[in-house]
Amino acid sequence: MNSLLILGGARSGKSSYGQARIESMAGDLTYIATAQAFDAEMAERIAHHQADRGPRWHTLEAPLDLPEAVAAAQHGAVLVDCLTLWVSNLILAERDCDAAGEALCAAVADCRVPIALIANEVGLGIVPDNALARRFRDAAGWLNQRLAKTVDEVVFVAAGLPLFLKSEA
């Protein structure tokens, strides 16, 4: 595996699947986190994820500057969790999601170590009833499509089970 995009719904098992795939690699492991703890519940979620990872993991926090973090993480193997929160962060910070997505695709294409990226598939539900939610859904969907073209492998996880959408050539 060189590059992998893991998609799924909330609580689908995508993060556990991604962590297991990266932990199967030898050497150092880098976890690039995009989450920000704006409330106690999110802080608890972040702490749970941190406790679940072992001492092989080094964490980089990149709530906005994800392409730069991917470019900097050039040893061992890398897990990015999660792109959906990153898109939300970009929108709230009034950043250009298209330009950031292009920069991320370039960083992933240039990455010399195995990398797995996790994202929610948000386009399976109804059309959101407000402009901000539609903008978010559209930006997340376009990013997933761009990355699916960039990476070697794409897996959709549902109920903890992987469905392989694109395999390494």
Automatic annotation (TrEMBL):
Annotated pathway: Cofactor biosynthesis; adenosylcobalamin biosynthesis; adenosylcobalamin from cob(II)yrinate a,c-diamide: step 6/7; Cofactor biosynthesis; adenosylcobalamin biosynthesis; adenosylcobalamin from cob(II)yrinate a,c-diamide: step 5/7
InterPro entries associated with the record: CobU/CobP (IPR003203), P-loop_NTPase (IPR027417)
GO biological process: one example: cobalamin biosynthetic process
Ligand binding (GTP): G8, G9, A10, R11, S12, G13, K14, S15, A33, T34, A35, E61, D81
Catalytic activity: adenosylcob(III)inamide phosphate + GTP + H(+) = adenosylcob(III)inamide-GDP + diphosphate; adenosylcob(III)inamide + ATP = adenosylcob(III)inamide phosphate + ADP + H(+); adenosylcob(III)inamide + GTP = adenosylcob(III)inamide phosphate + GDP + H(+)
Catalytic machinery residues: H49 (gmp-histidine intermediate)
Enzyme Commission number(s): 2.7.1.156, 2.7.7.62
Stored CDD domains: CobU
Family: Belongs to the CobU/CobP family.
Name of this protein: Bifunctional adenosylcobalamin biosynthesis protein
Species this chain originates from: Novosphingobium sediminicola
